[in-house]
Every structure is written in structure tokens, then in C-alpha cells.
């Protein structure tokens, strides 16, 4: 089965992990700080490494002080963790619809959803294409809300010349194997605001405070540490950070290859009836995590099943979040975001990963052409 996404591991990655395994540190050592510095060079903002993309979101909501009584506006066209992280903090999630062309959060829908209880707006850079952060920034500032970017798909992307990581108050990343780079499992939170970054780092480390200037009882002894607010153990080990730093050295090459494959798909599929290709807005330079096409005329299920039967691992990204039973049980109902639901009914992700060969891509295209032409 040809997968829709897959990690790229080379000897330099293996060597980095082996070196970490032979060191004195398997976790909370020097490679964590190095990976965070390497990430900052790409994202444009200081970073805190965490255990995965979902915990990155939970950490970001904690850093933003989200809690009971607060509302968080977000998109339904994402993995469930974008919303569930806010729910786990006791907040109410308000789903706003998406733009028809990018499937990103629609600023107009966000503005209509703002209430006096809005405390955060959480956008998602769907498929690696950054959301409209300038418009979302204006809305969030007027509302007195924190702007959060879920960039699980978008490390390496830029928006009007600015790297994703500098566009929101808090930006989260995922380094799952199918993402643009991998640490096996892993994630990060970036922020240009020192106060938010410090809160994220403390939450990530079980809430522990060791800075003498912040201790309530500073004279207890050199061993002393305190917890002022509850946090969780969301640390990313040195071994995985070593892999992350090695992967970051290859990121520019990853981006070039994903761009080449995207251009080939555009050229090979541009004239195929019954198919709508992904868009790219002016001023955006995406690191394409997905190649999401839209299958028209109600044929998405048929195409999905037949592509899978042909050994091509297409995927659907994503079920509208409020369709999950956990949200249905909270009172959310289908029909809330019609643009997102129409997108979901048509969306299909074609294989896209760095080591996808031209021949494999030709196989994907030929299979899709045969199905849609029959």
C-alpha cells in the first residue's frame, strides 16, 4: 500500500539518535535546548519542545490562561485536538466556518462569532497553507483575545514573507511521522511573547518553578522547587530532540521536494473533470503537508474505496470536529458550518511525502484518471 504520508529518515538522523543514546542524557538534557534553538531559527520565535502536537495545543491554551467560562473560536476542519485541548481547560468551543478555497478559518465567520466571553481565536494552517493571520489578528485584538496558530501542517511555511511562528501570540507544531519533519512523536509551542513562553515552559514541566526570584520560599535550600499552578509532564526527551535537530537540517530539502511534487500534481491533474485542485493565495509560500483535492459530483466515497483497493493510501482530512460523538453529546449539531461540511464531503488527500518518487506519483495520477473517467 502506497501511504498518503511517511517520514524520511537518512543516516544523519540515525547517527544523531545513536549519539544521544550514548550520551549521559536521555531526557531533559542539552539536546532539548539545542532543538528549541534550532526550531527558533526556522519559526522566527522562541520555542518550547513538548511531547506531541496535541499536548502542544493543551500547553498553548494553558499558557493563554484559558479556563471555565471562556470561549475559544476555532475551525471544524482540523484534527479533534485543536478543539479538545480547549475543552480540557474547561472552555466552551465555538466553531466558525471556513473559507471555501483554503479550508482555513474564515475571518468573517470569526468576527460574527465573537462574544464578550471570547478569550482565544485558534486558527489552523490547513495542509500547510497559512490562515489569514492579519485579519484574524485585528479581530482578536478588538476582542481582547489571544491569537493561537495550529501550525501542525505548516512548519517551514511563510505568510507575506513572515515565518509561521511569528504570526500569532502562540503557535503550535506537530512532529508526527507524517508531518513535514518528525521526532517520532513530538511537538512544540512558539511565542514571541516572553510571558506566554514562560507559562508554556512551566506547564510543560509539571508546573515546577526553580527560579529563585519566583520562589515563595527561596531560603529552603538549593534543592528546593515549587508548584504554583498545576502543569503536566509534556517534556520531549533528548533522544527525540536529537532526531528533530537532524531533521531540521534537512527541512529546506523537504520543502523543495514537496513543492516539486505539488507542481507535478497540478500539471498532471489540471485538466481532469470532476476534480478540484488545492489553491495557493498570493503572498503565501506553503510547506505542503497535504495535497487535498476535492472529488465532485458526490463521488468521494467511491474514489476513496477504489483508490484504496488499487493499493493507494488516500486519506480524508478531516471529519468536521463537531461531528464527533463527544461534541454531539455536548449539544453541537450538524449543519453549523456548511462550507466546512461541503468541503469534508468532497475532500481527499493524495499521497505526498518527501520520498514519493515520480513513478509512484504517476501511478496515483493514472489510477485517479481511470476512476474519474469511468
TrEMBL record:
Keywords of this entry: Pyridoxal phosphate
Active site, per annotation: 179 (proton acceptor)
N6-(pyridoxal phosphate)lysine PTM positions: 179
Any one Gene Ontology molecular-function term assigned to this protein's record: transaminase activity
Biological process annotations from GO: polysaccharide biosynthetic process
Superkingdom, natural source: Bacteria
Cofactor names: pyridoxal 5'-phosphate
Family: Belongs to the DegT/DnrJ/EryC1 family.
Protein name stated in the entry: UDP-4-amino-4, 6-dideoxy-N-acetyl-beta-L-altrosami ne transaminase
